[in-house]
Amino acid sequence: MKVLIIFLLPSVVLAYTDWSSVDQFYHPKDVSIARERRIHLGQPVTPHSIPYQAGILTEHSPPTVGRWGGSLITPRSVLASAHSFFSPLTSVTVILGAHYITKIEPSQQRFTIDLSQIIRHPDFLSDEFNHNRNPNDIAILILPQAAVINEFVQVAVLPTGAQIDELFIGELATVSGFGRPNPGEGWTDDLRSTSNHIISNEECQRLLSIFTIHDSDMCAENTGRGSSCSGDCGSPVTILRNGVRIQIGIVPMGPPCNEGWPDLFTRINSFLFWILENAV
Q1: What ranges in 52-171 are assigned the alpha helix state H?
Q2: Please, what's the largest Cα pairwise distance for the chain?
Q3: Locate the Peptidase S1 domain: which residues (predicted)?
Q4: What is the number of other CB atoms lying within 10 angstroms of the CB of residue 215?
Q5: Average confidence (pLDDT) per 10 residues, the chain, 280 residues
Q6: Residue extent(s) of CATH 2.40.10.10 domains in the chain
Q7: Which of these, 208, 179, 210, lies nearest to 192 by C-alpha position?
Q8: How far is 29 from 12, CA to CA, in rounded Å?
Q9: Which CATH class is domain 4-38+51-142?
């Protein structure tokens, strides 16, 4: 498993880390395909138009830091990717209400997570990846206290029980994140997004034969106009229905950004009951 991490001095305080100054670095485990993903060729969003977006900063030992995405699904629960919290993990900070993630904004709410309050899916096998990935790449972080819900911080809408069997094929899915707009470039300061249409898992398997596509996976076409790309795992994937934006997926570990390859997501429908059992 390759993980996007960056070296920090041990004395750095997570809540005030200058994210604009960090450089890309990879966890040394030998993997040739999978990488953390960021929004490639994405466009800046209207400030605070995605109020459920979370930024997540992890610190590990020896001193390294990972930068990830997530979504607020209850005032105390953040949905994320399980592989973001690899061992040895020493601290986790969740940032809500950010538009410029590299700055301290009045709209932001920051939380230090108790490591015992990171709930990874029980079937996530961090050392047994299928072609360097795991189909149960989902986790919930429990905040120490409830986030203040306001115009900058709001809860994502998840699919209902009536939508549990929906495949969303053909719908326009939007992915948001704080990552590099292009491979090799520096971090973006602001929240960005990109949109592509959902395709069937059968079509995805044909196009993305390096992986086994599971029922709990979801794919979107890659038309070259933008995709998730190196480094923003855990970020939300949403569709717009009847004026309501619904989160249907999570950016997991997947293929490197490469025009022509589909985007691969964790399908939230497959984990609705687990989410309901573990969110608070």
Answers
A1: none
A2: 49
A3: 39-280
A4: 11
A5: 37 39 33 40 85 94 86 99 88 96 93 97 70 81 99 98 96 87 65 93 92 93 61 89 97 68 93 97
A6: 4-38+51-142, 161-270
A7: 179
A8: 25
A9: mainly beta
